[in-house]
Design brief:
Elements: H1 3-11, H2 15-20, E1 43-45, H3 74-77, H4 83-99, E2 104-106, H5 129-144, E3 149-155, E4 168-170, H6 173-180, H7 182-191, E5 195-198, E6 202-203, E7 206-207, H8 212-222, E8 228-231, H9 239-245, H10 259-268, H11 273-291, H12 302-316, E9 318-322, E10 334-337, H13 362-365, E11 372-375, H14 387-399, E12 402-408, H15 427-439, E13 443-448, E14 463-466, H16 474-482, E15 496-497, E16 515-517, H17 526-532, E17 536-538, E18 549-556, E19 560-562, E20 567-575, E21 581-591, E22 602-611, E23 616-623, E24 630-632, E25 637-639, E26 643-652, E27 655-665, H18 680-683, H19 688-699, H20 713-724, H21 741-753
Parallel strand pairs: 1-2, 2-3, 3-5, 4-6, 4-16, 5-8, 10-11, 10-12, 12-13, 13-14, 19-27
Antiparallel strand pairs: 6-7, 9-14, 15-17, 18-20, 20-23, 21-22, 21-26, 24-25, 26-27
Amino acid sequence: MTVEKIKELVAQMTLEEKVSMLSGQDNWHTQAVERLGIPAVMVADGPHGLRKQEKEADHMGINESVKAVCFPAGCATASSFSRETLTRMGEALGEECQAEDVSVILGPGTNIKRSPLCGRNFEYFSEDPYLASEIAASHIKGVQSKNVGTSLKHFLANNQETRRLTCSSNIDERTLREIYLASFEGAVKKGKPWTVMCSYNLVNGEQVSHNKRYLTDILRDEWGFDGYVMSDWGAVADRVRGVEAGLDLEMPSSNGAYDSSVTDAVNSGELDIKAVDAAVERILNIVYKYYENHEKNAVYDKEKHHDIARGVAEETAVLLKNEGALPIAEGTQTVLIGPYAKKPRYQGGGSSHINSFKVVSACDASAGWENVTYVPGFEDNTDESNEAMIAEAVEAARSAHTAVIFAGLPDSFESEGYDRTHMRMPGCQNELIRRVAEVQKNTVVVLHNGSPVEMPWIQEVNAVLEVYLGGQAVGESTVNILFGKTNPSGRLAETFPLRLEDNPSYLNFPGEEDEVDYREGIFVGYRYYDKKKLPVLFPFGHGLSYTTFAYSNMRVSAERIQDCDTLTVSVDVTNTGTTAGKEVVQLYVADTESTAIRPVRELKGFEKIALEPGQTGTVTFNLDKRAFAYYNTKISDWYVESGEFEIEIAKSSRDIVLHTTVFVESTVQLPVVFTPNTLIGELEKTGKGKELIENLMKNFGGDQKENEEEDSDGMKAAVEAMLRSMPVRGMLSFGGTGMKKKDLDALLDELNRK
């Protein structure tokens, strides 16, 4: 339906009908207006599978949803470092939505992993905003290619579950722009989601659900978002202010509780009817975009989508450590230990919990193999060790060639609604791993978890494979990797710290009462660990392969550019091993001489390349202004400071393999206002400062000639440094300058005119 026809339709609606459109019809449907033939369409939970609740079913996931395919969760998919993988997964989700008559799937979630303790981290992508936004954009493009919408969530700065409906995320403007807004910005601009979901929380004391600056000024006017904004379920605090700010759709239905307040506000003149009309138009545009493109008889092949889920899981698994135990040779006597080998933990809890049509475990995938056996080893629902179970596992490991322990976090450890309090795995699992490793040198640990865990046994085991929450086919993908059918290619989208105490948010998470101060600023994740040079368990971007890769011939399109130019960076990558594999080439940018406080390096590009043994491929990156810029609050814009920048090609944030330097010249002149508190050293840039410093040096301390022999270079340097750090008003206090206050005022006026 055209914009003009939608406007005509809205013009025919009564005020009451318009207002009714601003809230859900029930938990999952938009409001219909039968008189005008306006249909109701359904939205449903995601984002790593379709969680469609039937009819009037609850929105909390208590009642059973329809059978669907559970793909790997966000914690896993981001580790693919593959835009193509997320697009392929999104296309499958779009097909399922068409078959189930769902207009919008709620996701993806691109909130930043500020702390490893956030209970919902398993749904989110990364600690890095660039990676998160790129992965989200690809997911969105995939889903929406099937004429089904996405709802990018949870906008904004919703980075914990503790008091998530009432807490205020208190964040300075630069940090908001560079970290927490940035993870959404790229996804909005590149992915163009049909809808955006606002979060429960407040930001700097104001509810996001009625914050015009975020919902309209930034989201729509700056970024060009043209869909509708919906609330998270129950996030509306003030419906009238919400409509005015740009919150279009309240979900779920409030059973008309807010309708009268909006109607009264319009009738009294408090709320402009134009705001209501605009919201209705945006909702109808999406309703009809789906309704007119809905495939009436759409079906999808569950088994085919299961195979896609397996392929995604294989792309996402991260080989953290390998000292020769993997891959396991065919026919090798292997024992699988741990209940997750038989019943894997493959997804998180809460609104994203998928009713999977089937689940394939590692035991299922290896069923009938004479060389593979299984023992439970521990109980999933306790911290306490079962000595008999451990003894059985130890004996089985002793007699095998390789022991593979399937460990991780129980369902109760991480879920929507609450945060973790520590990074530890259950004590019974840690004890089992230690005991098995004592008798079996080829001990492999497979981890099922939604966020980082401590690994006190890391030096005692031979290999560690991180499969995260890998979806319903995780057993197949894991077995394929363990036995060498698939070469692992995932890379960590988050840092694994050695201890919780090392995390930059440790002292301020989850805050006090309803106040959460983001005092770490821009130093989130690897930005902090690398700046502090802290040892970590595994760095951001880390991941191993069964083959080896060599990098060479790094080149840039120019050694000197302006900030408005695009820099092209290319590098050759060669598979130097004997196995086909995929390498993730990471590009970081470092401002080595900035006057602003900046991270050591920041991810600004990544590409995944598949290479056969001996094959060489070329990876190319294009870097624009944002790759070099920081957010300057003085000009309320992105700013590149003239100077040299390091361009780094890397395997992780801690493994830089090639680098070169380019000079970037700024085309923006920062505004400078000179005041009595301006430092004399800052005046030096004007040409007037040198003269002032020379005069002050002549008159400082009396007759310099008389003391010349006693004066040292060190003393001169000290005096000069002191003078440079002195405010210009201090010149009035030094005798011999001849400067009066009126002279100082005149000087400042002259400098500010220039």
